[in-house]
Write a structure and sequence with these properties.
With 142 residues, the protein is of the alpha/beta class. It has a single domain, classed as 3-Layer(aba) Sandwich (Rossmann fold), CATH 3.40.50. It has eight helices and five strands; from the N terminus they run βααβααβααβαβα. It has a five-stranded parallel beta sheet with strand order 3-2-1-4-5. Strand 4, helix 7 and strand 5 form a beta-alpha-beta unit. Helix 1 crosses helix 2 and helix 3 runs antiparallel to helix 4. It starts with a strand and ends with a helix.
Length: 142
């Protein structure tokens, strides 16, 4: 089980340079958990693709539907006091803190490509590459 942020979700379902990496993360651990906020962030990401012409309306609808179906049942409400506590200790947005808090509550890593999150929480947040290396090492020692 891992927590993934909205960028990792987008990389997994929107074809681009990081798609293969995100899909490798999903193959390695398909038990992805997210705060409910991910819906709004994903809509914002997809709206950007719609506006710049990278994807059309039917494509973004298919991507959102696929992601929502894949993540159904793994969405969590995150306790506001913990979000405010983490936000107060960092320079991150409350949105980013929701992912950190969820990872903390579930006692699992957060997989992200967000450099600010990685810098602020180096012991909890992992890049996709680091996650894959870490799990590959764990597979060899098991």
């Amino acid at each position: 089980m891992i927590v993934v942020d909205s960028n990792v979700i987008a990389y997994c379902w929107v074809n681009g340079p990081l798609t293969a990496l995100a899909q490798s993360v999903r193959v390695k651990d398909s038990d992805w958990h997210v705060p409910i906020l991910w819906h709004s962030e994903m809509r914002s990401i997809l709206t950007g693709y719609l506006r710049d012409g990278s994807l059309n309306a039917s494509q973004i609808a298919r991507v959102m539907d696929a992601a929502e179906n894949a993540l159904a049942g793994t969405e969590h409400l995150v306790p506001s006091p913990l979000v405010f506590e983490i936000a107060g200790k960092s320079r991150l947005s409350a949105y980013d803190c929701e992912f950190i808090v969820l990872a903390s509550v579930l006692s699992v890593p957060l997989v992200t490509a967000d450099k600010a999150v990685l810098k602020a929480f180096p012991h909890q947040a992992l890049t996709m590459k680091t996650f894959l290396k870490f799990t590959a090492r764990a597979d060899h020692t098991a």
